[in-house]
Amino acid sequence: MTQIAVSGAAVEFGATTLFSDITFTVAAGERWGVVGRNGTGKTTLFKLLTGDLAPSRGQVARQSGLIVSLLGQHRDYGSAATVWEAAAGPFAELLALEQSLADQAEGLATTHDEAALTRYGRDLERFEREGGYTIAPRVDAVLQGLGFDATKARTQRLETLSGGERGRVGLARQLVAPSDILLLDEPTNHLDLETTAWLEQYLRETDRTVILVSHDRAFLAAVVDHVLHFEGDSATPYVGSYEAFVAQRQERRLAQQRAFDKQQKVIAAQVDYIARNLAGVNTKQAKGRRKLLARMPRLSAPIGEDGTMALRLDVAERGGDQVAVAEKLRIAVEDRVLIERFDGRIMRGDRLGIIGPNGAGKSTLLKTLVGERPADDGVLRVGNSIRVAYYDQQLGQVPLDKTLYEAINDLRPQWERRLIQGHLGRFGFSGDEVQRRAETLSGGERARVALAMLMLTRANLLVLDEPTNHLDVETIEVLEDAIETYDGTVILVSHDRAMLRALANRVWVLHDRHITAFDGTFAEWEVASEERAHAAAVRAAEEVALRRVDEKKRTASKQERAAMGADSARKSLRQARERAAEAERKVSEIDGEISTVTATLDDPGLYTRAGGVDEAHKLGARLDALRAQLDQALATWEQDTAALEALERSTVS
Description:
The protein has 653 residues and is of the alpha/beta class. It is built from 19 helices and 18 strands. Among the domains are: 246-295; 322-519, Rossmann fold (3-Layer(aba) Sandwich), CATH 3.40.50; 525-652. The longest helix is centred in the C-terminal third of the chain and has 41 residues, at 612-652. The radius of gyration is 33 Å and the shape is globular. The two termini are 63 Å apart.
């Protein structure tokens, strides 16, 4: 069923056309990814879909009664005081009704007023009909998935949260709200790898329609089944996954290029004919061809990579083999210890990816490395021949009180004006734009200025803290290519898994005040993490099964205390007990081995040893085999226990 149909839509602001001739339809249950360069109109499209903005031309038709919910980048939580209240905001009316029902019930305990009883019954029916009993578990599950403690969230004050945490509360509020279509604008901002993976799973399993704007390529690849690509002054819909879109986009560009080249050859041939024959014997034919040529609709050259940022990262000098050393490093913020007694080395040519949950200390570690803050204990030093360039995720390196021209001139005072303008032009700033003050720029524009400044450092160590924030997909790809060909050392903190997979040949994992050094690629670390997650899932299933065993055991113990009958009955009971005990022993034996295997898989040190990933694969296979054995042993134990209980009942009777 079609929920939204966009036909020939255009948005114009005065004489400026943001986009035009956009046509696509969204059916129930589809998951759309909206991609394209910054400033092409992706967020404006959302305003069209919600009805907050009417198209200048064309139409946007919505299914009658459709509920469209938008997660914007600016969130208002109303009068909510706690995290839980903010997340549950869409259900404020039902939650107020729940409180009213509690008050009414208390009043009915001391009175038998017929009208009050009728009102209570009516309100209770409404509360049940509108799903009141499902609100709390739904809110708890989403908050837990997004990294909050659901119990603590009921008392945690909203004003104590950081900007990133408030963003996650906004996302939680959006996900729990009743709607037919979810419009998500950069939903993975402020999410770490674990919560991003949870959101992927949530969106894949939801029965709602999803339309999301994102620059996270791995996230798009995991979630969407349609893509709307903004390019030039329009947008093109594609059916299929994000990987299919990339292939189709390339094929489309090649076809456009071939058609454009063919037309240019035809035009050139006609122009040549007209020039040679306009004043000759074939002047009539030449004039006719000139008229036809004037009426010929011109094809545009494919946009391709034109207009993308032109970034190249060079090294002025090679530097030493040992880039940085940490010895018994301790880092703390106020009374909270982030990293305790860490020893590690970074060698020349490393592409080190640093990962870990939000708040684990990744950015603080980088600030300590570049000298913006001291180590609280131990040593973190950079080699004498190492020249560091630091990309701060807050973009503090861009001077807000200066123009773009002045920012570059400060770094290259010997450059002529044309060189400064040419350099800024490589990053999308031309003409009078170079005189804009940095404080007037958008986040994406400031990020490009930061990269323009980074390119001039010619450092042999790049320290990059979330460099993909604020950048569109195509600019991220340019940055990725530049880092790939860079001859120096790179330390990268990022939640962009596609970039980490492409670049990181070593990984440091921050967890529980420790850093686990993994001497393998990020892709290999993901495989190892899947083994650990699998071990945790098996352990959880095992705990459920063992609880069932304990319940059976308690039941059997009660029966054993019952009076016994004749000697023959006692003998049968004794044999039945022995069989049940043997079955239970077998369960315990397998359970012990499962515990040993899961403990090994759960140890981060396994993945840092030589051959650790291969060992993890083997242990994962062993874990599956043990799980099957445990299921069989539990089934046998339950059969023997049931036989024992039946025999005990017959003996008692």
